[in-house]
Amino acid sequence: MLAVIFGRLLRMVVVMFGISVITFAIFFATPASDPAARIAGRNAAPETVAAVRKDFGLDRPLPVQYALMMKRLFVTRDLTSFANRGQKIIPAITNAAPATLSLVTGAAILWMLGGILAGIVAAATKGRWPDKLLMGLSMAAVAMPVFWVGEMVNLITQSRFHDTWAFSWVPPLGYAALSQDPWLWFKSLVFPWLTLALLNIGLYGRVLRTGIVETYQEDFIRTARAKGLPARKVLLKHATRSAIIPIVIMFGMDFGVLVGGAAVLTEVVFGINGVGRLTYQALKVLDLPMIMATVLYASFFVVIANAVVDMLCLLIDPRMRRA
């Protein structure tokens, strides 16, 4: 078991190193791409471009540039934005991370609880009206784009019906820190949570329902039924436990990707200054250090989530320890 865990951690370090090299190469070593010219701005004089190239160390060999960039990013933490001079990259991401973590964590709790409940109920009532209703609603949820749902939610809660008793408690768009006002923090994130969780509730419910139905065809389920175990125990303890592994894998990857910035649409629509919105603003002005840092931040969470999922799967299913 320890050897398997060590192997997973070593693989994680190698993957992170590879991602950092590839990310640096894409943004700073692409042929016909001159970061110094982008920093200097349009129609800059050659002397200005040369000065910028020297100031930022872009005139040195690529391995040296990579080492200096990683050092300024992770060791000295003094790498600054090309677009907003003086703005340090790491503090900006650190300040934005709590908003993204709050958004994704709350949404993750909702979509896991909702998806598991929908999947179990649908599987238990296979072919009857609760199953058909839940699967129909889940299909509709999967089909609705997140940004459209967010805009419709804002139209209802912030505009059309904001002055009514139902939505008068909804605060203006934005993010309130948990440490400053927990109640305002909760109110400001309720509808972003629901918006971000809606698609995954439908997706996870369908996947779990399919997994449970397929598991009911296995021999160990027939054996459990033959022993006279209650139907509820067979469903929850045996069938659901075996079918939950794909859900755990999906959850780990989805959570890592969303924390890494894939929640950008939700953050932009609801005015949440998280990492996703920070990435969106950097992309608009081609701020290469900020884009590179947010990509590495995203990949870090994806790799960490993948490693955690591996560990959870090993605990849930001992058969995977031999893989």
In short:
This protein is mostly helical.
What's the mean pLDDT score?
Answer: 82
Helical amount among residues, as a percent range? over 70%
Number of DSSP-assigned strands: 0
Shape: globular
Cα separation of the termini: 11 Å
- The class by helix and strand makeup works out as mainly alpha
Strand content: under 5%
Taking Cα atoms only, what radius of gyration do you get, to the nearest Å?
24 Å
Can you tell me the residue ranges where pLDDT is under 50 for at least 5 consecutive residues? Answer: none
- Quaternary organisation of the protein chains: single chain
Task: Please tally the helical runs, counting DSSP H or I stretches of 4 or more residues.
Answer: 13
Largest sheet: none
Q: Tell me the series of helices and strands, N- to C-terminal.
A: HHHHHHHHHHHHH
Q: Key features?
A:
323 residues; mainly alpha; 13 helices; 75% helix; 0% strand; globular
